[in-house]
Design brief:
The protein is of the alpha+beta class and 426 residues long. The chain is built from 21 helices and twelve strands. Helix 1 (2-19) packs parallel to helix 3. The N and C termini lie far apart (58 Å).
Length: 426
Amino acid sequence: MAHHTLKNGYSQLAERINLAPQGAPPGELLYKILSVLFSEKEADQMALLPLRPFSAATAALNWKTNEAEARKTLESLASRGMILDIEAEGGQIFCMPPPMAGFFEFSMMRIGTTYDQKLLAELYYRYLNVEEDFIKNLFAGGETQLGRVFVGESSLSEENRLHVLDYERASEVIRTASRRGVGTCYCRHKMMHLDRACDAPLDICMTFGGVADSLIKHGIARSVDVKEGLALLDTAIGHDLVQFGENVRESVSFICNCCGCCCEALLAAKRFAVLNPISTTNFLPKVDADACTGCGKCAGVCPVEAMGMVSASDPRDPKRRKARVDKAVCLGCGVCVRACPTKSISLVSREKRVITPVDSAHRTVLMAIERGKLQNLIFDNQALASHRAMAAILGVILKLPPTKQIMASRQMKSRYLDYLFSHAKF
């Protein structure tokens, strides 16, 4: 009976979460996670919230309560990282973050007693590392990915530094952000509770802009200035951590400093390599076979096991080995370049440039189209349709390549969209 009640109490919230492009397949493990994070009343309320950002007045309308009471509930949820509250031009707005990168992480980014974090760690590990549906759906469910790797700037030669754009540099994101927050690494904190954590720094995961504002306000992250942010980046690089951040060019909201043993994104890259679950950099390592001594240090630090050692085919020394890169798996992070003691590895440009979405709206719409969820963004059943939001979504669609527009049109089965596409000027 308890099992049945648990499912009924949280199934609507699970269904609401799975409407979004970054969804979470419903199931008993997800219901258990949600039961730790939310009371049943909160779960009922969260299930009624829009997918798009909303005001306290909208929440009050959906919850059939007054605005003051709705705001009190929303701020309580925000204090635990389950809701983000962001100051915008028109006033305070709220949004429910996705599970990842979102409220799963936020529940572990502040070490304390808000939740039973050991229990959460065990549940998250089973949901993300034992079962495959969620991670496979999140990181390998379409062509457009949630996150991308930033190139290790110290691994670049003087020549290819000239070809690196500002949005490809983690240091530039830190320098130009309106606000910078740093919190506990969710992945290593989770593994710490399971006695599986490595010795990489914990206080190292970065958020920016409005997301940082909300997390700092509630003590989930701490505010840092540019100088400390860059110093933390240097610390991460010194521990051979990979910079993995939001897959957008403008207004990046997070950069995690990831290890290959604990971090979900890099673990997914190893498990589902052929599906390309992470957007790579625009570079690949190139090995100078004549200079390579076969020491294996590059293979030892590669976070996704893209570097391997093979026979050098040297008739004078049959045991001699050399490094070889698996281009299909390589992220282009440049960790191997820094590790090579003989400078036998350098970064070169990929033959085909990686396309990065402009901003979060662009990425979200692309992910929704590729995952068959565009209609959920446009026809958000949890709130009255907003002409402004509709216009923003359609504006993104109209700028997409024809193939993506066709996918959108097929999902919507809309004569209105077909008319817009046929009359749009590019």
